[in-house]
Design a protein that fits this description.
This protein is α+β, with helices and mostly antiparallel strands. It has helices at 37-46, 57-73, 97-100, 102-107, 111-121, 148-156, 202-205, 216-225, and strands spanning 15-18, 48-51, 82-84, 91-95, 125-135, 143-146, 163-169, 180-182, 189-192, 231-232, 240-244, 249-251, 260-269. Strands 2-11-7-13-5-4-3 form a 7-stranded antiparallel β-sheet.
Length: 312
C-alpha cells in the first residue's frame, strides 16, 4: 500500500504542508537535457518555465488549423470528454486529445517537449492527461485557483509530486484575455483543502470546481511568501509553458474580444504511475487520468509542417 504523503479533504479546516518531494529530480543524464543550469534553477525556485516562440510561425499556422478542426468536430458532441461552459453551449475543454486525434498524439511526443519533461522529472515519462482549453472572447469563464496535484492525488491516486504540465499557446495570450496566473514558489507548499469529495465530483468540477480549492487565508499566505508576486504566462502563439504539478495557478474570465486557446500535455514520471485514489473512491474516467497501456514516450522529431505524414 502506498503511503499518503499529502492527505487532503479529510478535515473541515485547511492546512499548509511542506513539500516532501524534489522539484527537479536528479539522474545521471541530468546535464544532457535541453535545460541549462539557469533554467533548472529558475524552475526549482519559481515552479515554471516559459519559452517564447518554441514553435515557428509556420508551425503555429498548422497548430491553429488542427485546433479549428478539433473545435468543429466537437461542436455538437455530447461525449463526457467534451466540457462546456456552465452557462452556455460554448466548449470549455476537450480532453484526451493525445489519444483521440492523430496530430496531437504526435505533437505530445515532440522532442522539444518530451526531453524537457524527462530532464525535470529525472526519468522517462508518459501522458496521464491531455486537453485543449478554449476561452472564447467576451464569455470565457475563469478557472479558479488550484493545485493540479491536489486533485490528481486525491481523486486519481498520483503518489508523488513528479509530474509537469506543458501548455502550448495556440492563440496569443495577453494580460487582458484571461491568461494563466501562477504564484511563484507556491509549489514548495501543499494546501490540504477542507471538505469531503462527493461521488463523481468530476462531473461538476470540470465546469466549476468547488472541492479541492484552497481557502482564502492559505492563498494569501502563499502570495505573501512570494513577496506579493503573481506572475502571468503571457506570450505569442507558439510559446510553451512548463509548470510544476503542485504550483498554485488559475485564470480570470475573458471579457476581451480575443479568444485564448492552449493545449495541455501532463507528463508524469513512469516511476509515478497512478494507484488507487487516496480519497478511497472509484478512479475518475480514463480520459481524465490514463491508467491503461502505459508506456514511456520515445521522443521524436515530428514534422509539424506536414501533419499528414505518418510516424512510427
Amino acid at each position: 500500500m502506498v503511503a499518503d504523503l499529502y492527505p487532503s479533504r479529510v478535515s473541515e479546516k485547511a492546512a499548509i504542508v511542506k513539500r516532501q518531494d524534489p522539484v527537479v529530480y536528479k539522474n545521471p543524464m541530468q546535464n544532457e537535457g535541453p535545460l541549462g543550469k539557469e533554467d533548472l534553477h529558475f524552475y526549482e525556485k519559481n515552479g515554471y518555465l516559459m519559452f517564447k516562440n518554441l514553435f515557428s510561425p509556420e508551425e503555429v499556422d498548422v497548430l491553429r488549423r488542427e485546433l479549428a478542426q478539433v473545435m468543429d468536430e466537437n461542436k455538437h458532441a455530447e461525449s463526457a470528454d467534451v466540457i462546456r461552459e456552465p452557462e452556455s453551449a460554448e466548449i470549455r475543454s476537450v480532453f484526451d486529445v493525445h489519444n483521440n486525434t492523430d496530430f496531437f498524439k504526435r505533437l505530445s511526443r515532440n522532442r522539444r517537449l518530451v526531453e524537457v519533461a524527462n530532464q525535470l522529472l529525472g526519468s522517462q515519462v508518459y501522458i496521464t492527461q491531455s486537453r485543449i482549453n478554449f476561452k472564447p472572447g467576451f464569455k470565457g469563464k475563469e478557472f479558479y485557483w488550484h493545485s493540479d496535484f491536489e486533485t490528481w492525488h486525491v481523486e486519481d491516486g498520483m503518489p508523488n509530486m513528479r509530474a509537469v504540465s506543458c501548455s502550448i499557446i495556440l492563440t496569443d495570450n495577453y494580460e487582458h484575455n484571461g491568461p494563466l496566473m501562477l504564484v511563484p514558489g507556491s509549489h514548495n507548499y501543499y494546501i490540504s483543502c477542507p471538505g469531503k469529495t462527493p461521488d463523481n465530483h468530476f462531473e461538476q468540477s470540470l465546469q466549476k470546481q468547488q472541492f479541492g480549492v484552497p481557502d482564502h487565508e492559505s492563498l494569501k499566505w502563499l502570495v505573501d511568501q512570494a513577496g506579493g508576486r503573481i506572475d502571468t504566462a503571457t506570450g505569442p502563439a507558439g510559446s510553451v509553458l512548463f509548470f510544476e504539478c503542485n504550483i498554485m495557478h488559475g485564470s480570470g474570465g475573458n471579457i476581451s474580444p480575443f479568444p485564448r486557446s492552449n493545449v495541455f500535455f501532463v507528463y508524469n514520471s513512469i516511476e509515478n504511475k497512478l494507484v488507487k485514489p487516496f480519497s478511497g473512491q472509484s478512479p475518475r474516467p480514463e480520459f481524465l487520468a490514463n491508467r491503461t497501456n502505459i508506456q514511456p514516450i520515445e521522443p521524436m522529431d515530428q514534422d509539424i509542417l506536414n501533419p499528414i505524414k505518418q510516424y512510427t
